[in-house]
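Researcher: Structure prediction, please.
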Amino acid sequence: MFIGICRTGAYTNSCGPDVPCILSSPNFLGIKKEANMKLTQLLMALVAGPLFFNGSAIAQNDQASGAANQSAQPEAGAQQEFRIKHVTPAYWRVTIDHPPFNIFGPESIPQLNSVITQIENDPELKVVVFDSAVPGFFLTHYDFIPPLEVTTRMPPGPTGMAPLPDMLTRLSRSSVVSIVSIRGRATGVGSELSLASDMRFASREKAVLSQFEVGAGFVPGGGPMSRLPRLMGRGRALEILLSGNDINGELAERYGYVNRSFPDAELDRFVDTLARRIASFDKQTIGEIKHFVNIATLPPDSEVGPQWDAFITSVQRPAAQRDIKNLMELGLQKKPDVEIHLDRYTGQVNQPDK
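Model: Predicted structure follows.
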């Protein structure tokens, strides 16, 4: 049994009176939650290891963001996947900390939304750096375990788009400069967060970027079909999107996927020095420069929003249902080797039967 299609002419993907609603509580594979309980319990056991929290990381002061933002607040007591460190009033670091693989799921959305809202609203902030506390992983793909309806029933954000493209678009448009420091795998959502940020710097030895989704039978949903061609041109963008191959730090630099790659031992020092330098400059001037670069380079919402709709539709098709099921059986979201070599395993599940 597959998940029923739920889409609208806008970008909200919420069920309405004339829209077929999702079947009762299936997950991405169309399996009832009860039938998938053992797998869910196993995954919970894997990710329930001790985390380092900062209770002030996700603040609750988002009054300026309107009712749509208020409905996407972190749940009390939830494990905080994004920790904010105020290096200075003008310079923050946001550390992604969701072991073992930094998988992004529905529970991540309100937490990232709170981070983005704080970035938008802080009067002193000039630059923010995203990094990871989980060795080998920056930020990876969307979580295939929760029921799909948990995602599709989330209200749109302030842009009118679904939460993920909304947050990425707001990060790009913010007057605050955003930098990602990539050490480990940035796949799927991790690649899309990187592309939405203003600058990307990578460990030459340890960074891996990819849009693997084609190998799992579905369309990426966070806007890479609009952002990648603007960075590297049509041919290279299609190579990345249609091959689903891993791109290491050195090749990512050559293609324009990242600004620069560095020997791993030099990455942190460079990023910190650059962030501190930007933070020393006038905030209004920074914002005006970024505003005009945004006009010249950012894709319109009319390009980004439909990509989320295509993701939601395509992930329910038989090809995606088959590929995701096969990947999960091989150990996706459980075995490090599958997450680390996802391009190899997506190739494996698409081989014709012998």
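Model: The chain has 15 helices and ten strands.
Researcher: Thanks, that helps.
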